[in-house]
## 1
Amino acid sequence: MILSISGCSDFLDEKTDGKVFDNVLTTQNGLESALTGAYRGWANCWTYGFNNGWATEMTLGGDDLTCPPGTGNTQEYDRYDVKNTNSSSAPVYWGCYKAIQGANNIIENYKNCKGDAGTINCIAGEAYFIRAFSYYWLVRCHGQIPLILTSNFNINDITKSVSSVKEIYTQIEQDLNSAISMLSDSRRNGDAGRPNKGSAMAILAEVYLSEAGWPLKDTDKYTKAADMAKQVIDNRATYGFDFENSYDILYQNDETKSGINKEDLFTIPCNKSNGNTINAMYGYWAYPGELGGWDVVFSELTFFNQFPEGPRKDATFATTVTKQNGTIIKWQDLKYQRPYYKKLMKNPNVSNYYNYASSIPMRMLRFSQTALTYAEAKARSGAPDELAYQMLNAIRKRAGLAEYSNLTPSDFADKVVQERAWELCGERVRWFDMVRLEMINKIIAEKDPKDNQPMHAITEKNYTFPIPLHDQLLNSQLNTDK
Amino acid sequence: MKKLLSLIPLKMKITIFMSLCFIGILYANNNYAQKKSLNISAQTLTVHEVLNNIEKQTGYTFFYNTKQVDLSRKVNIKAANENIFQVLKKIFTGTNICYKILDKSIILSYSNKLNAACLSQQDDNILKGKVIDDKGVAIIGANVIIQGLHSGTITDMNGMFSIKAKKGDILIISSIGYHTVKINVDQQNSIHVVLRESIQDLNEVVVIGYGTVRKSDLTGALSSVNDKSFSEQNVNRIDQVLQGRASGVQISNTVGAPGGDIRIRIRGANSVLGDNNPLFVVDGFVGADYSLLNPNDIKSIEVLKDASSTAIYGSRGANGVILVTTKSGNKDGKVNLTYSGSISLSSLIKKYDMLDAGDFATLVNDHDDAMGVSKHTFSDQQIQDYYKNGGFDYMNAIFRTALSTQHQISVAGGNEKTQFRISGNYLLQRGIIENSSYRRYTVRANLNTKINDKLSFRFNVNGASSEGINNQARTGASNPIVQAMSWAPTTNPYDGNGGYLLSDPVGSIKTNPLAMIYDSESKFGRTFVNAMAGIRYEIIPGLSADFQTVCDLGFFNNKYWNGEYASNHQPSASKDNSQSLTVQTTTQLTYDKTFLKFHHINVVAAIETQRYNWESLSGSAANLKFPELKYNNLAQAGSTSVNSDYSMWSLLSFLGRINYSLMDKYLLSFSMRRDGSSKFASGNKYSTFPAGAIAWNAGNEDFIKNLNIFSKLKLRASWGLTGSQAISPYATLSSYDTSIYYAYNTSGRTNGIQMGNPGNRNLKWETTEQKDLGLEFGFFNNRLNVEVDYYIKNTKDLLLNKSIPYFLGGGSITANVGKMQNKGFEINISSDIISNKDLNWNSSLNFTTVRNRVTNLGSETEIFSNTNISGWNGQAEFIYKVGQPLGSFWGLRYLGPWQKSEATEAAKFGCKPGDAKYQDMDGNHSIDGSDYQIIGCGMPKYTFGWNNTITYKNFTLNAFFQGVFGIKKLNYNRCMNLCAARDARAATLEEAKSRYVVGKNENAWLPAWSPTSKWEPQSTLFMENASYLRMKNISLAYTFNISKVGAFKVALSATNLLTFTKYKGNDPESSNVGGDGSDIRQGIDYGSYPNSKNYTLDFNLTF
């Protein structure tokens, strides 16, 4: 008692043993930990990020994907009527910004960090990459958004206004250029989940391609896109990328293996082994109910019917599925009578096929996409060169299709866009192509009447999604609907 | 002179002893015998007849030995408005019968002397005297005995006595309700004795913070519950004692599981963010854990409600304070052994009406049709088979009738100097959901001793250990009830190989409910050792110093396990061990003195310190190699992780109080506490909490007395400030979340850090100002008591977790924003409706209203909760808005299905007739976030309690009703199992048949199944009135008095036997969100563990 009174000045001190504060960022270990925390924004299962069906649901507007009728939030994308209350866009939006917050923290602190300069530089490069990739997803989905470049919390920032799409893209370019200059040629520590210099360049090529289309329509960027993609293609050996010869390898989805192949430029890896990192939903949201799946997404009928036959089609779609009791069901006999995406399901020959969790990575960018980006950008910025044909035809050949030659630039570009649809279907590419090239209305005119139909006439307003209500309620400036 | 009592047979002595025991408890009124007038018309009667007549008229019982009292003797008697003594005198004058009054009994005994002499004998060595009270009124029936001898007498109707005594003898004069007086016999042969009313007996003494006070001297609002009021009910936790028995206290069994969470609120909720649980103080230990207290150890509970009572607890008093005093031993030199045991059967109160398998399959096909899915899920043949053979009854599979037992033993003894009491309690409660239970052991030893006249010492130790199995509030999809409702009755849950089916092909997309129950485990272990030692020294008469220290050691041992099936073949387990240590010291000076007869002053000053340390170590493992080892061998796993943590807080307090009363009429109280807390940054650490109260005992004024209406009339008013430690430690600091993992490849994972919620250095106490006006009435000699209070509580610097936009990282920041108000009435009426020899009916009723509203939110007009319980559409479910109560639901207003006549309008929304129609607030023909509005409130407006105890001879009947009114609930269970979408893909409720069906059922309230319709969970479509009135307890007890052994009581009781409610769920009382301190998330039913209906058989033995 007496002791406590005499020592009362320290009796009320708060002892923070066990807590971690900002000062750890001056150490290399601290910076490394913060980087892991930044990546975590992309993969926090059940809370936010990409390792769930959410991001794929957001691209249901593409003609490659559809969902069962009457499925509340999900069908809003398929019917071009996305509300601010939609529950699928919020977790992806949040996850991207959580990653941005972590990246900002590193970018602000790495210069004062003591340790191996090379490693610290590379950590910063990864942070720039994280920030750029996150903004790239956000700007394509939501258009004008707040541009946050600091991690220091300021209560006044709650009412921050949005930046223009142009400003966002400028920042993305700048960050990717930083990443390119700071990242090394190979993935750090050989980790499948990290980008290397080539990954950053390939993303930058995609960014340029997007800028050239709707809404900025900065067509000069086609040249830049082609140049950047060409650098990746030319130096693919340096960065460790290349085409795989067979689709079986591409969509093997064998979680007992490393999960990535030469073609994966950038993935968000998953590991189901611990409760905290069960970050794979690769199976169940794309599985039919007959297998215990959740029937979230499957193929549109027209898209499937028009998809050219061959090994690629066989590798892409599950036209028959095997139930746990061994019964084989053809897609026509499934409840929803649609083919499901085999490339989004697990390998049936590996154990735990009937399990919602898996360790299969979320593929964010593949070499074949960069190859087609080059081909399209080259055609749209002049005319396709030999490399452009080479890239397109390599993919067609692998798919068992005839090679193209002597097409007009615009015809060539259209063929590339179609090839992208088939090659990258279900991989969250088609919807953004349809938006950037403003071909939604034309394409959905061919929708099978049995598939979900648009709720109303589609306008530019439907090309992006409202900022989630959570943020609109806190910052009325984000409600662009009013 | 022959000893008086030896004439009475032993059996009667026991009865007398028993009645003596009760005297202290039952109200005693010595003047009654004198005042109660008798009328007997002139006639000749036998003595027996006259005594019966008196018994009937007065409620007194006569005890006598028939060998001594001639009952058949005829007497001529007439009495007109005469008191008992006058009548008895008429009967027994000239006989050898003496009489003596013991409370409501009159003992007739044989004396050697004739009755005339017995009452007014005049021997040389006889000391005569008169006993009166301080008002000069004679005290009848006072005991006059000579110390050391067992001889004695009682005073007569005039307060007179005479006793054989010699010089040097010490006379002990005592009477119930008065202070005992000792007198040295000197030369005198006549004495005059004034007995002062004993406040402990006549005027109930109640415990207040850091002291006690006569109830009549109370200036604040306080509800007092003593062990008598719940002795007839089988209780195993303190909340069951308080529920409905104390006005102003709202208690909900939010988790009906054994040992499950409860919500206790005193005068509503003050804090949005913080803990709204009242502060528990057990024998002076501030912040005790009530759940580990054995209710049989409780002597009294005082609920401090207004600020003048609670401000003495300063920064922790804002939610009200519940003071618990535990029982101590006996002073009478006797040792008692008490055993009680009970056995209970519990079952579900109400089941949902579920579809049978055939109807279910039919409806699934109907849903396919409605959605345009051409391929039916079930073939006609299958449906016929289901109608014929039925399906699987999931409700029957998860619910059970559960058996619970309790044993309790206590030994109490002691003498004037030293008292002890030791008790042990064992409780095993099984829950009505299979494989859920709660087990508790408690041991308590209380010891008090007087070292000398000035110095006394006390030592209490309480050890308790409990373990709950699967008894937590499980939310939503991870709740077995939710899954049992959602799994299709057409799906067999067993896989045929001794395991459980992993997924339901038709209904729920989530885990098999049977796997959740049998292949999954959550165990919550709590072990507490609480030791308290105190020493008290009387420095000078009236001034005493007291030092008390309490050490509270807690061990928490939580274990979780998910087996092969519950985890979908990824068995995992974890174990968290943590320990807490709280050390409290209280150094107190008390001065209590009466000056110049009229001025009574009581001053308290104290310094208190409290320090809390907590540390934890936890480990978890995934992909267990041997799942059957559960959490007991975590290393045998695919991956493991460990974590440890530490936290602390400390509190330093200075407090003081002055209570002053003038002539027992004018009462004044002032108190002040200054608290310093480690949780705040320097500059904001200290805060002061003053309070004051005045009261007027108008009933003691002559002009009120002369009205002859009130036996008590008191007016009181109080004001004060209290605080709330609503923030957790470290809230002023921005620290990182450290349990962050990322997988850089498919095999490993890496630990990292993420920015946590930003700290706010400017945080300060949340302060509640409370004003209270109270009126107390007593009528008919206090047989009817009415207490009315009106209060206003204004909370300022309201701590809120303000949501941070996702674009700044999400989460929230704690800030002092805004103000909130609670106001309401409390009425407490208690009455001895019937009170006579054989039949007593005591009834008490309380009614409480609380009106809560947010009055200010700083610069903002509305703030949204950061929660989404359903996990379906990610919207905030609650809103805080100026002018609206806490717990306001945020959602859409459902207007019924679109009607045929509205087809054109419906089309603008993309809807067709039958689809759900919601109010379009902004008229944009789109139902989105802008159409969300306040649709109800999940906080009760009124609570009600009515307790009745009726005793007839040896029978005791207790009936206790409790009710909650003006409360809404969002029933997600119904939404989930009607909408045939989301996590449960098919409807399982019978109610689904009443939905809108085009061309068949177009007068429905429920919308149709349609691809263009949305069944919004967060809408008035699933909002229900959750008011209820419940017969909480009914019990019948019978007491046997067994000669030479003791008493044996047996009781049969039923709890929750009857519930009157419109609510459609299992139980209106339980809530999805448990008893966590915060009130922002109540009123949602998504798999709550329902309360049960219990039948209990109780045995109680006293030796």
## 2
Amino acid sequence: MANDILLEIKGLHASVGEKEILKGIDLTIRKGEIHAVMGPNGAGKSTLSSVLTGKPLYTVTEGSINFMGKDLLAMSPEERSWAGIFMSFQYPIEIPGVTITNFMKTAVNAKRKAEGLDPMKAGDFLKLMREKMAFVQMRPEFAKREVNVGFSGGEKKRNEIFQMAMLDPTLSILDETDSGLDVDALRIVAEGVRSLHTPEKSAIVITHYKRLLDYIVPDIVHVLKDGKIVATAGRELVDEIEEKGYDIF
Amino acid sequence: MGINDDKALEKCLNEPGMSISRRLDPSPKHDSGHYVELPLVRNEKTLEVAEGEVFDKVYVLGGDSALTELPFENIIVGAGAKVNVVTLVMPGTSIDLPLAVDIIGEGADVNVSGLYLCGGEEKVQIRTEVRHKVPSCTSYQLFNGIAAGKSNVKFYGKIVVAPDAQKTEAYQTNHNLVISGGARAESKPQLEIYADDVKCSHGATVGQLNEDEQFYMRSRGIPENEARVLQMISFIAPVLAKVEDESRREELQSAVEAAVRKSLATL
């Protein structure tokens, strides 16, 4: 059914500077689906997530992206967030001087303002924060820490999933969320993502390796190579890649 | 006295009631290479914080404040005294702000800090010189500024540690954010250290708002302008943290945030 479609990418070409990285991507994501995008280094995986979130310096030269009936490419990064897109960064950014509490309060209230709602009451906000922090096993004192400053790799990724839980997105993009994580951190992060998933929501899991996909099982797997999707299949494709590598494509 | 003392000048300065005005070199290009002990200046622009006393004060220059300059240009600090002076230069204020500190008694602790916010055509020049003349004292200089519009800001900061002033700890930091193409910032830190058992450092930067931080915040739904405000407020925070009194600090935080929103954050 057409109204099941959450995201539709058609003929997408994108460049950084003069260099074309994405060379014609078609991808359709329906409600409830989890898609894995796999591929070797330099295939364009991170460019795809950057274009979806509106990162400056990435230029779309051709094609379109429709998200829930809206022209995504015409929207600013903040408008995309309000519309329900969230990306867990491969390398979360440190923001010295801004506490997690202040950062999330500003983000949550900006979204509420865009929806015509009043700012959240301070008590309600702190309660929500405590609940979502516990959910990814972040200690309460992290609320007062500066965003990502001095965090370990695992703490940074847990902070990403905490923010995801706070903002409750319709489409989550996990960009190499498994990189730099040990097994325990991987499990906490993956369980967080899994329990946030509902039949109304979708996710794109971008990864080089199989291991995250053992926890977050995809419905559809795409292989991205040299800026194009060269294979699309069910989850069995993950094992084939694990066994034979990307050279078969 | 040091090796270069000038008998005539010394005599002149020791005359009771004698005042001498002296400008700090606005753009020191060379140091003398050896220690020159400058005579103490006592005049109507001198603040003397005597042995064991505490002087803790915030000065807001411009903005809603009627004050347009500091009531002193040099501070003499006695043994065991504590000095904490925070100066906030609000948008729309052009100023030349000289501040010399002579530490003449052991065990003194000096903090001089400042913030300058410029969004128009202001010219702000800050010149500090902290002179450690005796052992076992600490000094911290922290000045952060934001230059927008067509403003022009300069910071010249100096630390001098006399040969006898062992166990000195003296630090100086100056960070500048330049947020529009027409604005300029310049920072010239100087250290002159003649003692060997000391801890001294300086750090100076002139930079712009970090775009990766901005994109990260925007991807969380924080609008671009609000992201810039958050960045500027976090940049300013270390200076406001020097204000000891909590309610005064909160009051200044909201005044500074309002000034940033009004004069600096417009795209």
